[in-house]
Write a structure and sequence with these properties.
150 residues, mainly alpha, 0% strand
């Protein structure tokens, strides 16, 4: 399981800009939107993949991003597009909600990567490439949190 305090997962702001999706997910919306538009460093993929017990390539595939593009951007120390940054922040936001519901990162990751009856057997993580899918998963997590077993 990933240590979220590891340098690849949580790094300090650089020149006033957040460097991880975890930081952006915790920001007030107005600041988060600015950070998403600016894009995160491509290395941010590593921390999110680690938190979900996935490889960077697996996470890229789930989010509909070319693994080769992520590898190239990481080598060049480039920033992600706003679209890809938003996808990373979305998956972190849902992961954090799942962690609150299930108490640990490992339990949250297990739930996100296992077929869910409430999603007709789909894995919650496979819906997180779209906003609509993420809202559906968040709704199920809210139901679980408030006793509406799903």
């Amino acid at each position: 399981m990933a240590n979220l305090l590891d340098n690849s997962a949580i790094l300090p702001f650089v020149h006033g800009m957040p460097t991880t999706a975890f930081e952006v997910a915790e920001m007030p919306a107005a600041y988060a939107v600015k950070a998403i538009r600016a894009g995160l460093p491509a290395r941010a993929f590593v921390g999110v993949a680690d938190a979900l017990n996935l490889t960077v390539d697996q996470l890229a595939g789930i989010l509909g991003v070319s693994p080769r593009t992520i590898r190239d951007q990481r080598k060049k120390l480039a920033r992600l597009s706003s679209e890809n940054t938003e996808k990373l922040v979305r998956i972190v936001r849902v992961q954090q909600q799942a962690r609150k519901v299930f108490s640990t990162d490992e339990a949250a990751s297990d739930w996100l990567t296992s077929p869910a009856p409430a999603l007709e057997g789909a894995k919650p993580i496979d819906l997180l490439d779209t906003d609509l899918g993420a809202r559906e998963v968040e709704g199920i997590l809210n139901g679980i949190a408030y006793g509406n077993v799903m």
